[in-house]
TrEMBL record:
Keywords of this entry: Amino-acid biosynthesis, Histidine biosynthesis, Hydrolase, Methionine biosynthesis, Multifunctional enzyme, NADP, One-carbon metabolism, Oxidoreductase, Purine biosynthesis
Gene3D superfamilies hit by this protein: Leucine Dehydrogenase, chain A, domain 1, NAD(P)-binding Rossmann-like Domain
SUPFAM superfamilies assigned: Aminoacid dehydrogenase-like, N-terminal domain, NAD(P)-binding Rossmann-fold domains
Function: Catalyzes the oxidation of 5,10-methylenetetrahydrofolate to 5,10-methenyltetrahydrofolate and then the hydrolysis of 5,10-methenyltetrahydrofolate to 10-formyltetrahydrofolate.
Gene behind this protein: folD
CDD domains for the chain: NAD_bind_m-THF_DH_Cyclohyd
UniProt protein name: Bifunctional protein FolD
InterPro entries with a match to the protein in the record: Aminoacid_DH-like_N_sf, NAD(P)-bd_dom_sf, THF_DH/CycHdrlase, THF_DH/CycHdrlase_cat_dom, THF_DH/CycHdrlase_CS, THF_DH/CycHdrlase_NAD-bd_dom
Organism: Deinococcus rubellus
Domain Tetrahydrofolate dehydrogenase/cyclohydrolase catalytic stretches: 6-117
UniProt domain Tetrahydrofolate dehydrogenase/cyclohydrolase NAD(P)-binding: residue ranges: 136-281
Length: 284
């Protein structure tokens, strides 16, 4: 058997198209504001991608690029100003922050109604009570990808490998809300292979290249690979990327997301959708 490839770009485009349509029906253009401190190349590149996608679907986008010497009180003052500005629909502070700034305090300062990352403790709580207004982007993007390819979720046994605050734990809440039976496994789980072999739906978000090998997967399972690991350089000097799932899993699984080009594009598309969701609520 060779797995169907659940390619991210068409699913991401469908989400972006929906965001564009919904934004066009609002009385005011949704505005995404991104705060970035310092010039870390990865952060600069992620933030410019977010801005490009926002502009592509007709949203406004403002990047507040501050020096990495910005103090915590200065950053909190900016967040307060953007919280109070009715023209700002969505607000995020790009992570990681310099060591002299407490990210917890910063994330809690963002208005939960504008928190398009879904990282505020109020939004984390709402996710578990089932009133998720703004779900975190990567796990919500995984669910959107499964929906796009009509992968059934209700009643299936989902095994999530990885318990991070931004992927594993919130994804468990989202799949539970969709009536999956959910198990979370992690680095201290004993007998990982016997658990992963039970999964109808296996989602891996650990950050360990090729952790999941074919014998760990039930024939016919759907496998979602959230891992992005740099594994050396290609001949042209570009970083070579590998997922958490070994490519040979394609011989066993019914469907598999590729790396790159699987879950990755869904994260930014969901961020754009979250900005529209925030604007819809704020303008209602
Ligand atoms: N840095 C890497 N990924 C993310 C993300 O999803 N949100 C924010 N705010 N920072 C990040």
């Amino acid at each position: 058997m060779s797995a169907a490839i659940l390619s991210g770009p068409p699913a991401a485009q469908a989400l972006l198209d929906e965001a564009r349509d919904r934004a066009a029906r609002l009385p005011h253009r949704p505005e995404l504001h991104v705060v970035r401190l310092g010039e870390d190349p990865a952060s600069v590149s992620y933030v410019s991608l977010k801005e490009r996608k926002a502009l592509e679907v007709g949203l406004g986008s403002t990047v507040h690029a501050l020096p990495d010497t910005t103090t915590q009180p200065e950053l909190l003052a900016l967040i307060e100003r953007l919280n109070a500005d009715p023209a700002v629909s969505g607000l995020l502070v790009q992570l990681p922050l310099p060591a002299h700034i407490g990210s917890g305090a910063v994330l809690e300062a963002i208005s939960p109604e504008k928190d398009v990352d879904g990282f505020h403790p109020v939004n984390v709580g709402r996710l578990w009570t089932g009133d998720a207004a703004l779900p975190p982007c990567t796990p919500a993007g995984v669910v959107a990808l499964l929906d796009y390819y009509r992968v059934p979720i209700a009643g299936r046994w989902a095994v999530i490998v990885g318990r991070s605050t931004i992927v594993g734990k919130p994804l468990a809440a989202l799949l539970l809300a969709r009536d999956a039976t959910v198990t979370i496994a992690h680095s201290r789980t004993q007998g990982l292979a016997s658990l992963t072999r039970q999964a109808d739906l296996l989602v891996v978000a650990v950050g360990k290249a090729h952790l999941i090998t074919p014998e760990m997967v039930r024939p016919g399972a759907v496998v979602v690979d959230v891992g992005v690991n740099r594994v050396g350089l290609s001949k042209s000097g570009k970083a070579r990327l590998a997922g958490d799932v070994h490519p040979d899993v394609a011989e066993v699984a019914a469907a598999l997301t590729p790396v790159p080009g699987g879950v990755g594009p869904m994260t930014v598309a969901q961020l754009i959708m979250n900005t529209v969701l925030a604007a819809e609520r704020l303008q209602a």
